[in-house]
């Protein structure tokens, strides 16, 4: 092997190492961001109907406010199931520690309600579709430690695809409400200024 070939091989090896290192740094950044800052969640199942569809919905969730105790009633959260630890669930917070929560015990069979006070370090979660949801009514209050994130936006990719590249999207478009209304009525949205 000549000296010239050795120099070329050294240059190629340095470039390969540099690109590999860049890819590794990028993957580490994505992992840390996904684990501790933001994540995109794929949602499925009937428990959050009508807020989310049975399949195909995506949402952007942040992963830090629950660690700071910034989760409140009405928030939609991602959490580990207390009865199936490998399962991740999406539910709405109905109450936080110290809150008094009244819930329908068996919505399919009766209107009987019970009231509980959420214990310290716990939250009470329920699915929006109370007739088809396994939630705190079944397994009780959930420890804060099982929370994995809080939903920020429902991502409606079909609205993004329907919009042209120059359209200004607002949060209503991301939640799908104004985009769906336009699709149902057959009206076109005027997104140009003025």
UniProtKB/TrEMBL annotation:
Pfam families, per database record: Peptidase_S26
The record's SUPFAM superfamilies line, in alphabetical order, gives: LexA/Signal peptidase
- Say what the protein does: Catalyzes the removal of transit peptides required for the targeting of proteins from the mitochondrial matrix, across the inner membrane, into the inter-membrane space.
Q: Where is the active site?
A: 47, 91
Q: Where is the composition biased (Basic and acidic residues)?
A: 184-194
State what protein this is by name. Answer: Peptidase S26 domain-containing protein
What InterPro entries does the database record attribute to this sequence?
A: LexA/Signal_pep-like_sf, Mito_IMP1_subunit, Pept_S26A_signal_pept_1, Peptidase_S26
Q: Where is the composition biased (Polar residues)?
A: 172-183
The primary site where this protein sits is: mitochondrion
Q: Which CDD domains match?
A: S26_SPase_I
């Amino acid at each position: 092997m000549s000296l010239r070939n050795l120099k070329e091989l050294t240059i190629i090896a340095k470039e390969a190492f540099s690109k590999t290192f860049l890819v590794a740094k990028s993957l580490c950044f994505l992992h840390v961001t996904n684990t501790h800052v933001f994540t995109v969640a794929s949602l499925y199942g009937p428990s959050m109907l009508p807020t989310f569809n049975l399949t195909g919905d995506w949402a952007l969730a942040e992963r830090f406010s629950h660690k700071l105790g910034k989760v409140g009633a009405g928030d939609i959260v991602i959490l580990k199931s207390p009865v199936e630890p490998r399962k991740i669930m999406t539910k709405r917070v109905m109450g936080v520690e110290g809150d008094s929560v009244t819930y329908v015990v068996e919505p399919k069979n009766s209107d009987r309600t019970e009231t509980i006070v959420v214990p310290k370090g716990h939250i009470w979660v329920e699915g929006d579709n109370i007739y088809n949801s396994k939630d705190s009514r079944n397994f009780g209050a959930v420890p804060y430690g099982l929370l994995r994130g809080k939903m920020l936006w429902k991502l409606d990719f079909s609205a993004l695809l329907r919009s042209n590249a120059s359209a200004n999207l607002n949060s209503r478009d991301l939640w799908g409400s104004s985009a769906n209304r336009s699709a149902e009525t057959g009206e076109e949205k005027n997104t140009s200024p003025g």
